[in-house]
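=== Per-residue structure ===
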Amino acid sequence: MEDPKKLEEGFGKDHKVETDVDDHIARDIIDENEPKSTITSNAMEEQSLVKQKTKRVATLDAFRGLTIVLMILVDDGGGAYPRIDHSPWNGCTLADFVMPFFLFIVGVAIALALKKIPSVPHAIRKISLRTIKLLFWGILLQGGYSHAPFPLDYGVDMKQIRWCGILQRIALVYCVVALIETVTTKLRPTTLSPHRFSIFSAYKWQWIGGFAAFVIYMITTFSLYVPDWSFVALDNNDKPQRYTVKCGMRGHFGPGCNAVGYVDRQAWGVNHLYGQPVWARLKACTFSSPSSGPFRKDAPSWCYGPFEPEGLLSSISAIISGTIGIHYGHVLIHFKGHVERLKQWVSMALVLLISALILHFTDAIPINKQLYSISYVCFTAGAAGIVFSVFYILIDVWGMRKPFLFLEWIGMNAMLVFVMAAQGIFPAFVNGWYYEHPENNLVSWIQKHVFNDVWNSERVGTILYVIFAEITFWAVVSGILHKFRIYWKL
């Protein structure tokens, strides 16, 4: 069984190309001023390795665990508290940090996992295989085949299957960023030159890849002509009706006529997109905004239409999130002192945050998760950098590890918790054992009688159910699995 804390990408740990990664990372964290012993006996070497492995970067697992916890919280609690759910369009809420945080930590971990690559062809095969695995699980869980946790059936009409999703986007970003890191391995320096921006010039090919994604996204967003489009959807009376969205424009950032949506309609087809976009909660669509509700009688036609939040063009922009994450990993590798690392991380995070706010409040490019706009990339990557730095100070510098152990446990089994909790597979399994009617199941009974009735509030009961019956439960399960060194690897 592999060490659970191998610094791997996102949801699993399976690379043979990680040879010696643990030992190298451990050496990076040890105090530079610690005296070096020249004794080479086997006993002393074993003691040294044990000591090194106790000083690993726990921040990575804790950050990954935090992202999973946020996903569960906003997915299952966002209905009761719309303010933490995804922003209906422009702006950024708690839920909008989840995806870029995933991509950020994937980038950080790739830098560490691929620090040493004995065989480039072998590494490429491993990266390709993991990408295929992520795509498979993404389509299975979010393509429409799984209906978990409700209703108690499964299957998808291939005419309606959804090709995009969370894991599919992670797969694309992971594949691109990891391949660039792998094929440029012989071009990397072992040490940095003394000038201020040497960390950037040393990994110029990674930044060139990120810049290429930026150029493709910006040119397409502002220059692509978006024509009128139509679709069939159910009206307020649940009857199928054809709607037409009038566009005929370029460079639009509104819901109905942006280039991001047009690319997905052309690439996948309008029937293969996400059918419940968050824009349906806009004031233009419902009087219940920011909550979901019936559509207004004068709602624009695009309110009824589909939109893919993890689509093709927006996923190209998401590559930049992974590129920024891998930069943070490179800093962790090359800068040995805590102060030097934090200077690099925090300064870049502040630059990203300031750039995003300027773009947003000057109305140049709004912060928008659905479009994965450049200002959104900068804002969320900057926030990820700040959170990562704070975690690093608390956990790895000050040694305050115990309060964050539950996040580490969840982070070590992130794929398991994502599938079972965030995608509702475990609740669906429990709901399958019902009494007389599918609605009479254990999950519903616990939520109603243990939480909602006790607190006499569905909103409070819902959020407490999510915190205790989901997050706390899976933290305990992850801790037990960690005790027995059981991990779900891709």
About this structure: The longest helix spans residues 458-483. The beta strands are 229-234, 240-245. The first strand starts at residue 229 and ends at 234. The two ends are 14 Å apart (CA to CA).
